[in-house]
Design brief:
The complex is a heterodimer of chains A (429) and B (252). Chain A is built from 17 helices and 5 strands. The two termini of chain A are 32 Å apart. Chain A has 2 domains: 243 residues, no CATH class; 102 residues, no CATH class. In chain A, the strands form 2 sheets. Chain A has a 3-stranded antiparallel sheet, with helices on one face. A two-stranded antiparallel sheet of chain A has the order 1-2. The longest helix of chain A is centred in the N-terminal third of the chain and has 35 residues. Chain A is mostly helical and 429 residues long. Chain B is an alpha/beta fold and 252 residues long. Helix content of chain B is 35%, strand content 23%. Chain B is built from 9 helices and 10 strands. In chain B, a hairpin with a 2-residue loop joins strand 9 and strand 10. Chain B starts with 7 loop residues before the first strand and ends with a helix. The chains are: A mainly alpha (429), B alpha/beta (252). At the A-B interface, helix 8, helix 9 and helix 10 of A face helix 2 and helix 3 of B.
Chain lengths: 429, 252
């Protein structure tokens, strides 16, 4: 037995070592980032961190306990409102609290709402659980515009960050560091949670709730506790956004925010700890950058989500984990052509779809689309003018899509041909 | 011979699902330290009876007593805490957790750390010691870090039995512990049960007559929702009603 332990420590040692190095480098990079980034980018990275914490808190429920919540906007929003109210009290000098501690109120409000919603929702699992969370969030969404005293009506509530201990919190940089410290501490705590008795039990509940009951546990109570932990950290993320934005209105409770955190989590990889962090970071950056380029970015996000769930359900991080487990660096060479084929196929496919979508959107919405003599519309796109009646206008993107599909499939088939059976199993499992 | 109150006692238990009455007045008693086999033809209601004892269903009528108190109507977790552990016919583990972690989850209620978030589970010495002990009792020491979902079938069955033992119960309910096993695997598991169940009462459902007659010192025969006979293996073999209703049909 001691031999077995020794050998398992020996094989595990380098992995732990490397993950720590990566973690350290990432943290150092995050600390150094504001010194090199422009102002607007600092604000964006702040938003990315908050979105990452939100998704990570959401995924405590799904990854461990297999409970899919469609109402997490409620906890995020309540955390924002609670924190804004405290900020207003501080600004009005009726409370004396340092700004860096205020996100605690977001956390506590998430906790309280988590107790209430969790009590009802965790009495059920699966679809019924999802329905209850959705219903609670929708109730709050519908009531919030009417309760002006609490939620500030249509215009919402604003406040300002008050200086504390020589820090003005007036610049993006100071806010960035405040959010960074909170996010890192919260993420470390959530990771620790997964190792505690309740955290391990949460995995057991997700695997086999009936067995947990036959081992003498009160399963609904245990699920409620896990729910509360998730709601608590979601409220904290909301509190951080309240500090960063200095305002909030009732639209924060919209169902699309609850949906967004699901999308972030599944694109990143819902089965892994890091998945939601990576997914939320990538998609927040994508939406921020893409929103400048096109109004259709929500469509692209949706298409990406559908494609991921259909063809890569394990998500970005899940794919990376599979590859790390089954691939060796020396096998990369022979696989390179097929990988490039897949990549090229995806690029062609994306280009074709984007062109068609933008063209249709321009036709449908652009009041300046010009009628030609033949009564057909032309649209300016990608630095050229395209005739809606010309065959080439449609043939070109359609060929691109078709070619992309063929190339991707060929590449994938070629790739899986060279891959041992184990990888295939994991990919489809 | 059987003195004192039985550990488990079923008195005139009935169970209906809709119009269909599955259990029609079953009486059964299991004494401390006894290895009791519950046999009967398919559809006799053995699984239903099992599920009522462990609290998954409530009886429609009658009462179930365990350690001197009524347990019908209690939840499975309450009944487990009174000292009843069970295994499942269809392997029922936590596939994402390692063999050792499955056992940690199973033993931690005994150490009062059910829903704690203040320590790492893997650092809890009492839990670790007891989990390792059980792991070695079922000879899975070399597989401690393998996810339960990746263990072989007979290893999963062994872990299943270890989970039933984890709460240190007075009575263990085993639902077809050798189902789906080869003869060699079955022999191994019987040996395992014999070894780990010493000092505890055992109630098992089993289709394999060889297994039942080897392992059990007392048998009850359930036919059409009623226990038609209870006694030692030789009595049961000799019982004409049993031969007619059950063994006879096998011999024919």
């Amino acid at each position: 037995m001691s031999a077995a332990t020794a050998s398992s420590t020996r094989t595990r040692a380098p992995t732990v070592h490397w993950s720590r190095v990566v973690l350290l480098v990432t943290v150092l990079a995050l600390v150094a980032l504001p010194t090199v980034l422009p102002h607007r980018a600092i604000a964006m990275v702040t938003q990315m961190q908050i979105a990452a914490l939100f998704a990570l808190a959401f995924n405590i429920l799904w990854r461990q306990t297999r409970l899919l919540s469609f109402g997490h906007a409620a906890f995020f929003g309540i955390g924002m409102f609670a924190t804004i109210h405290i900020m207003r009290a501080v600004a009005a000098r009726s409370a004396f609290l340092p700004l860096p501690l205020l996100p605690i109120f977001g956390l506590m409000s998430g906790l309280v709402l988590g107790v209430i919603v969790g009590f009802f929702a965790t009495a059920r699992t699966g679809t019924y659980f999802a329905m209850i969370t959705l219903a609670f969030a929708e109730i709050i969404h519908q009531l919030s515009p009417q309760w002006e005293g609490i939620f500030g009506g249509e215009s919402g509530l604003s406040s300002m960050r008050m200086a504390w201990a020589g820090l003005s919190f007036g610049s993006d940089k100071e806010v960035y560091y405040l959010v960074l410290v909170w996010c890192l501490a919260a993420m470390a705590t959530i990771h620790y949670f997964t190792l505690t008795p309740l955290g391990r039990l949460a995995f057991a509940l997700g695997d086999n709730e009936q067995r947990v009951r036959f081992l003498g546990y009160n399963a609904p109570l245990a699920k409620t506790f896990v729910f509360i932990v998730s709601a608590m950290f979601t409220g904290l993320a909301g509190g951080l956004l309240a500090i960063a934005n200095e305002n909030v209105d009732h639209t924060i409770f919209r169902a699309s925010l609850s949906g967004q955190v699901v999308i972030h989590t599944f694109i990143g990889g819902a089965g892994t700890f890091l998945g939601p962090i990576v997914g939320a970071t990538a998609m927040t950056m994508f939406s921020s950058l893409a929103a400048d380029l096109t109004r259709l970015w929500v469509l692209y996000q949706g298409l990406l989500f559908i494609a991921m769930v259909m063809y890569l359900p394990q998500g970005i991080v899940g794919l990376a984990v599979d590859c790390a487990a089954h691939w060796r660096w020396r096998e990369l060479g022979p696989r390179l052509p097929s990988l490039l084929a897949v990549l090229g196929g995806i690029i062609l496919l994306t280009a074709g779809i984007v062109f068609i979508a933008e063209f249709l959107a321009a036709l449908a919405t652009n009041p300046f689309a010009r009628r030609t003599d033949h009564g057909v519309l032309t649209v300016a796109l990608c630095g050229a003018t395209w005739d809606g009646a010309a065959l080439a206008t449609w043939l070109l993107p359609l060929c691109s899509v078709a070619g992309g599909v063929i190339l991707t499939r060929l590449g994938a088939a070629w790739l899986s041909h060279a891959v041992p059976a184990g990888v295939q199993q994991t990919a489809h499992g | 011979m059987m003195t004192g109150e039985p550990l488990l006692e079923l008195r005139n238990v009935h169970k209906s699902f809709g119009q269909v009455e599955i259990i029609r007045g079953a009486n059964l008693s299991v004494h401390a330290g006894e290895r009791h086999g519950l046999i009967g033809p398919n559809g006799a209601g053995k699984s239903t009876l099992f599920n009522m004892i462990c609290g998954l269903f409530n009886p429609s009528r009658g009462e179930i007593r365990f350690t001197g108190r009524r347990i019908d109507g209690l939840t499975p977790e309450r009944i487990n805490r009174l000292g009843l552990g069970r295994s499942f016919q269809i392997t029922s583990l936590f596939p994402r957790l390692s063999a050792l972690e499955n056992l940690r989850i199973a033993v931690m209620p005994r150490f009062g750390v059910r829903l704690s978030v203040l320590c790492r589970l893997s650092r809890h010495e009492g839990v670790n010691a007891r989990a390792e002990e059980l792991l070695h009792a079922v000879r899975l020491g070399a597989r401690r870090d393998v996810p339960a979902g990746e263990l072989s079938y007979s290893e999963q069955r062994a872990l299943e039995i270890a989970l039933a033992l984890a709460s240190d119960p007075f009575l263990i309910l085993l639902d077809e512990p050798t189902s789906g096993m080869s003869r060699e695997e079955a022999v191994h598991v019987i040996e395992l049960i014999r070894r780990v169940a010493t000092g505890r009462a055992l109630l098992m459902v089993e289709h394999d007559m060889d297994v039942v007659f080897q392992l059990c010192d007392r048998l009850s025969v359930l036919v059409d929702g009623k226990v038609i006979a209870s006694g030692g293996p030789e009595d049961i073999r000799a019982n004409s009603a049993v031969r007619e209703a059950y063994l006879g049909s096998l011999a024919a």
